[in-house]
Amino acid sequence: MKTLHTDVAVIGTGTAGMNAYRAAKAQGKRAIVIESGQYGTTCARVGCMPSKLLIAAAEASHAVDEAPRFGVHVEGDKRIDGREVMQRVRSERDRFVGFILDAVGSYPEADKLQGYATFKSDTVLLVDEHTEVHAKAVVIATGSTPAVPGMFKAAGDRLIVNDDVFEWADLPARVAVFGPGVIGLELGQALHRLGVHVRIFGLGGLLGGLNDPAVKANAQQVFQNELYLDTDADVKHIEQVGDEVEIRYVNLDGQETVERFDYLLAATGRRPNVAGLKLENTSLELDDKGVPVFDRYTMQAGKAPIFIAGDVNNTVPLLHEASDEGRIAGQNAANFPNVQPGKRRAPIAVVFCDPQILAVGKPFKELPDGFVTGEVNFDDQGRSRVMLKNRGLLHVYADPRTGEFLGAEMVGPTAEHMAHLLAWSVQQRLTVAQMLDMPFYHPVVEEGLRTALRDAQARLDELQARQHKAVA
Ligand SMILES: Cc1cc2nc3c(=O)[nH]c(=O)nc-3n(C[C@H](O)[C@H](O)[C@H](O)COP(=O)(O)OP(=O)(O)OC[C@H]3O[C@@H](n4cnc5c(N)ncnc54)[C@H](O)[C@@H]3O)c2cc1C
Ligand SMILES: NC(=O)c1ccc[n+]([C@@H]2O[C@H](COP(=O)([O-])OP(=O)(O)OC[C@H]3O[C@@H](n4cnc5c(N)ncnc54)[C@H](O)[C@@H]3O)[C@@H](O)[C@H]2O)c1
């Protein structure tokens, strides 16, 4: 057994881990990264980037389908070459992974340890059975793994998760997607638009991470107009039959139906990678999911010299959060016990389905009593209609006392851009009135946002008028 001494040991070389390592080194400290799997990060290998590549191909296909509505006709049949689609997805994905491999390749060899890390104590790690690492501080950045309900085991080797999709050499004919959350909606719709026969089965009415009932209902309608989506499916039986999976379910018309698919894609959420870490050997307090209780500003777990960043902390499993958290964790681990709060940004989330979904600011469920909602429906929004993208609904929320803009949920056109405008406004703590003072060009989708803000402002004014009347 080798023994290694360092200032900071980072477990996991994903986005959070790489940022933690860089931040620790920038403090002039010794740091190592420990990786049990492949370098390359979840984002680049099986997450953000390959999913967006598949979606880009789906958008190209969809544009051909939509073209006749503009009077543009393509002679002959549209032909999707699944092999070419997947070839581009994989080769571009490999290019992105290559940049990460180059970055990790630039770390000194002595700073990299290959193997699975477990805790022996707060500051001693065992890596496989070959190395004992003694660190002054540890950063846990082990990411997350698809959470696959036990009932799907009946699909045998027809059961897949997102990772498998990006290894396909060709597009399959039929896929049953379980989980219309972020991953299921993005991948399910993309496959549908690429000519794959897709059924999306959900649970409990959840859809795309939306929480505002009106926005969710609008989104459900919009997506159901395009593809088969049951957000609260009644699935009776799942069974592997030869090279297929047979699913018996009650369809949206209430009929019991049996269908066979090439694959059952489980997109039913992710769980933090904490189970194998032997956290019981540490002094850490764990929550009901086994995740160390930590401070989201310092990333420190309790009072221990242990920091936890990225998907593994099970709070906001998004790429930019993993980067920020890794940086804060690495810096604080290097300077332990001088631990300082790091900068956290306004919440922003985008789902790259079409129409896109956004959620920014305070989560809907945490809005204050009596919050004010402003609304715009995109069905008749000028620019959206010009582009034949006139579907969706935006709700903006404001504080009834101060008029401060608190957040928004939306399904609709160009939500990825709108989300930034809105998240920046949340972070600047702008009021609805201040946002309305800003310029709005014509004709743009943001004019729809102005309509929603005006609606919110009218309600705020009405509230204020009522309060004045009550006082008088
Ligand atoms: C399909 C999909 C699409 C996504 N799309 C987006 C998107 O569009 N935008 C967005 O913001 N986010 C997206 N995400 C989320 C984003 O990818 C993650 O939030 C981010 O990659 C998490 O980074 P991380 O560093 O926490 O984890 P990871 O990158 O997973 O890194 C964790 C590393 O730890 C290693 N490890 C685990 N346990 C141990 C151990 N005991 N010892 C040693 N090493 C260990 C793992 O092998 C892994 O390399 C997507 C995710 C998925 C799955
Ligand atoms: N665009 C992005 O930023 C992006 C894209 C993909 C993933 N991500 C990140 O990855 C995380 C995980 O994504 P996800 O889609 O796996 O999780 P999720 O929590 O968004 O969705 C899981 C869905 O599965 C459903 N579900 C659970 N059990 C089920 C069952 N037995 N049958 C049918 N449906 C079931 C849930 O109701 C929910 O709708 C996201 O929270 C997000 O942070 C982000």
Automatic annotation (TrEMBL):
Gene3D superfamilies for this protein: 3.30.390.30, FAD/NAD(P)-binding domain, Fe,Mn superoxide dismutase (SOD) domain
Residue intervals of the FAD/NAD(P)-binding domain: 7-326
EC nos: 1.8.1.4
InterPro entries in the record: FAD/NAD-bd_sf, FAD/NAD-binding_dom, FAD/NAD-linked_Rdtase_dimer_sf, Mn/Fe_SOD_N_sf, Pyr_nuc-diS_OxRdtase, Pyr_nucl-diS_OxRdtase_dimer
Sample GO molecular function, one term: flavin adenine dinucleotide binding
Residues of the Pyridine nucleotide-disulphide oxidoreductase dimerisation domain: 349-452
Residues the record lists as binding FAD: K52, T142, G143, S144, D311
Disulfide links within the chain: C43-C48
TM region(s), chain numbering: none
Chain sites annotated for binding NAD(+): G179, P180, G181, V182, I183, G184, L185, E186, G269
Alphabetized UniProt keyword annotations: FAD, Flavoprotein, NAD, Nucleotide-binding, Oxidoreductase
Record's cofactor remark: Binds 1 FAD per subunit.
Active-site annotation: H442 (proton acceptor)
Cofactor section: FAD
Family to which this protein belongs: Belongs to the class-I pyridine nucleotide-disulfide oxidoreductase family.
Protein name stated in the entry: Dihydrolipoyl dehydrogenase
Organism: Verticiella sediminum
